[in-house]
């Protein structure tokens, strides 16, 4: 910062020689720039606009509140301990009515400069607002990651929570957050094992060689070992869902979420089939074959439980985000493929239907040939037998190669960009955690002689107050928008 305010005043501050086009010299971090008061007054609510009005009215005390130091010469020179590069961008608002952020500047620091100069954030050009929005989103993501890291180290209850709430929070972390502890990770591995085991048993149950002899009704039945495996898996799934539901912070939202609905659909058929079997055995006249087939088909939904493990895999989340951000490229690919399939299928039928041994009996039947040809799969079950048909096939798979190759590069770029960004955000979150530990250690050292100070330092290690991002993730942007 600059030194104390100078106390010398000259005749230039009497106001008699001030005019609307008076020049002002501003010194921003050692870089001088001459500005005109009438230009600055175009935005009187800004710091420089207010400074231009105050300097004309000869009020040294008010001038001192608006700058770090000043020299009341002719013209007067005002000193600001700010970034000169950012000021060159911000001063453009007085001449062009908008602000452009230069390439390479930190959006957060630039918005802090705009807040200091009291320039409205709406004056930032649209081409630069996207950078600011991206930086704000990154700050919020870092804050969320820091909160997640803090939750792993906290004891999950707090001093004010009841014992029941603490137990519920611990159970929720045990069932839903495999990274929180070794026991939680073991439960996640066991859940994955039972999902795979149940799916394998379901597949093995369809092998005719594994059927046992006939049951009482004269029909083949599944092997008793497979039924035992199915029962054990369903017992695990039922207990797991019941514990997760009991520990859920919001049970209604938990029960209505997509993956939990899939869990219910994977569990219910087993009990429905069990109930139907018991009822049929008692009544003796109930035909359960069709009902059993329907319920058995519902068991396939059990395989969808594997999808819930995606929330524990950063790679799958990155792939999902890459596909979602590449929706335009994928839509263009599907459109191009759809037009090509229709066109080449119609051409193939036209040139092939006159052949005595043709395999193209209709245009809809030719769609299958066009799909496997344009995607370069080529099963060979349907193929042209005429010269024109073969030429049409050659053009179709060449067009298919081009259609598939074009969107690959943008999709890969989106995947790499998002994955790199997530790694950087995780590193930034870990850095924030390290800063918290250092600040806590410094507070503990400063208050070493006081028990109260030591206790406050230990509690502060689990507090969000040390991380500005967690106090208000958009604090650097809200001031200028107000």
Secondary structure topology:
Layout: E1 23-28, E2 31-36, H1 37-40, H2 47-56, H3 60-66, E3 69-71, E4 77-80, H4 84-90, H5 93-96, H6 107-116, H7 126-153, H8 163-176, H9 182-204, E5 212-214, E6 220-221, H10 224-247, H11 251-256, H12 258-283, H13 289-298, H14 314-325, H15 327-352, H16 363-374, H17 387-405, H18 408-446, H19 451-460, H20 468-471, H21 475-481
Parallel strand pairs: 1-4
Antiparallel strand pairs: 1-2, 3-4, 5-6
Task: Explain what you see.
The chain has helices at residues 37-40, 47-56, 60-66, 84-90, 93-96, 107-116, 126-153, 163-176, 182-204, 224-247, 251-256, 258-283, 289-298, 314-325, 327-352, 363-374, 387-405, 408-446, 451-460, 468-471, 475-481, and strands at 23-28, 31-36, 69-71, 77-80, 212-214, 220-221. The protein is mainly alpha-helical. It has a 4-stranded mixed beta sheet. A two-stranded antiparallel sheet has the order 5-6. Residues 1-20 and 452-482 have low confidence and may be disordered.
